[in-house]
Specification:
globular, 3-stranded mixed beta sheet, alpha/beta, 20% strand, single chain
Length: 292
């Protein structure tokens, strides 16, 4: 099986902000001008898809489903690694309707030969996909967030399913409810993160594994722009427009910043990474085996 720059998105036709399950969600603001926000969301989604295609991603699209506005954030759908998809189990009732839709879609990917296996978590164990389980290709490990959405018990299931080192990072604030809102490993080995999102023990885990010269700490105001919620491949970083300091830091380190106005999706607490799910991630060992 060959994976090459393959990423998943969801048709945004039914995206809207009608409830609030995180502090960023603004249903009142959306209700003031829903038609304009829908048009802006479609334009932003198209721009994001075009940026990803330009840097070489093949894009698969989950069809929109009425009544499931957050389906547009497939990072929460599953963790996909070495051809196995571990499906999410959502903490909030507002998102649980996505689960059967996603199960059918991933079974379809399996039937097409795009993944090998589809697995489920045990009852009572919450985990919200790649939003709380981010692969660090440089260190060959998963960084796994838990606390607000994903349960600590999910860490053992991630380790058992994928057989990779999995470093748990406890999130301590409601605003940074998924790891992808405050933490982004970059292809060159740097880690862009907001320290205030993490407990002291979790910060110690980060500093133990990431040298000081590879840690790029964002301020709370910088994190609030959702620019840490980014898709990085090679020297390209696709993200909501970053503050000038972060842009300069990334460019000084040789990255190309490809920004997209995702402000309408930020009304629901998500941006570029949330709106995508990598299907092609593999360990070095799996890549080596495939090449033999």
């Amino acid at each position: 099986m060959t994976f090459h720059r393959h990423i998943l998105m969801t048709d945004p036709s039914h995206f809207e902000v009608t409830y609030a399950i995180n502090p960023w969600m603004k249903p009142t603001a959306w209700a003031q001008n829903p038609e304009d926000f829908r048009a802006k969301s479609r334009a932003a989604w198209d721009d994001l898809a075009a940026q990803l295609a330009r840097i070489g991603f093949t894009i698969d699209v989950i069809p929109a489903a009425p009544g499931l506005p957050d389906l547009v954030f497939p990072a929460n759908a599953a963790v996909v690694f070495n051809g196995t998809a571990l499906l999410a189990r959502f903490r909030h009732p507002e998102r649980r309707g996505e689960e059967p839709v996603l199960k059918r879609f991933f079974e379809g990917l399996k039937a097409r030969g795009l993944i090998n296996d589809v697995r489920a978590l045990p009852e009572g164990v919450f985990h919200e996909g790649a939003g709380d389980c981010i692969w660090d290709a440089q260190r060959q490990l998963f960084w796994a967030g838990y606390g607000p959405r994903s349960s600590e018990e999910s860490l053992a299931h991630l380790r058992r399913t994928f057989g990779q080192e999995t470093v748990g990072l406890e999130l301590r604030t409601a605003h940074f409810y998924h790891l992808d809102t405050c933490f982004c490993p970059l292809p060159g080995g740097e880690v862009l993160y907001y320290p205030g999102a993490f407990t002291p023990m979790s910060l110690a885990e980060i500093t133990a594994r990431v040298p000081a010269d590879m840690r790029i700490a964002a301020t709370v105001d910088e994190a609030a722009t959702f620019s840490l919620n980014a898709v990085a491949y090679g020297r390209d970083v696709v993200m909501a427009p970053p503050p000038q300091r972060l842009r300069a830091v990334l460019e000084e380190r040789g990255y190309r910043v490809n920004d997209v106005d995702l402000s309408s999706f930020m009304l629901s607490g998500g941006a570029a990474y949330c709106m995508t799910l990598r299907l092609d991630l593999r360990s070095q060992a799996a890549k080596k085996l495939a090449a033999e």
